[in-house]
C-alpha cells in the first residue's frame, strides 16, 4: 500500500525560499505516471500548483510559474517543490499526490506560512 510522507513546511519570511519534499513508500519501479502538488489557503479553494510526469513534462499554475520549480527523483519515488520569492499569498497547506494508472494517492498536507 502506498503512503506519501511530506516534509519541509514551516514559517518563512516573505521573499525567502523553501523546499517541500514528498516521498512515496512504494517500490522503485514502475515510476508514478504523475506527481505534483496542490495547495489550499485558509478560506480558499484547492489549487493545483505544479505537476510532473514520469517523462519529465511539467506544468505550473500561473501564480507560481516563475517562482516555483517541481522536480522528481524517480528512483526514490520522491517529488520536490522548490519555492522561491515567497509571498504572503503563498500561505497554505500544501498536499502532494502521486498517480499510477487509475489510482491516486495523497499526502496529508504540510503547512507553509509566509510572513511579511
Map the helices and strands.
Layout: E1 4-7, E2 10-13, E3 18-24, E4 34-40, E5 47-53, E6 58-60, E7 68-73, E8 78-83, E9 92-100, E10 103-106, E11 110-115
Parallel strand pairs: 2-11
Antiparallel strand pairs: 1-3, 3-8, 4-5, 4-9, 5-6, 7-8, 9-10, 9-11
Can you summarize this structure?
It is built from no helices and eleven strands. The protein has strands at residues 4-7, 10-13, 18-24, 34-40, 47-53, 58-60, 68-73, 78-83, 92-100, 103-106, 110-115. The chain starts with a strand and ends with a strand.
Structural notes for this entry:
There is one protein chain. The protein is an all-beta fold and 116 residues long. β5 and β6 form a beta hairpin. The termini are far apart.
State which percent range the strand residues make up.
Answer: over 45%
What would you call the structural class?
mainly beta
Low-confidence stretches: none
Q: Give helix % range.
A: under 10%
Major beta-sheet overview = 7 strands, mixed
Quick one: overall form? globular
First and last CA, distance: 41 Å
Radius of gyration: 14 Å
Characteristics of this structure?
single chain, mainly beta, seven-stranded mixed β-sheet, 116 residues, four-stranded antiparallel β-sheet
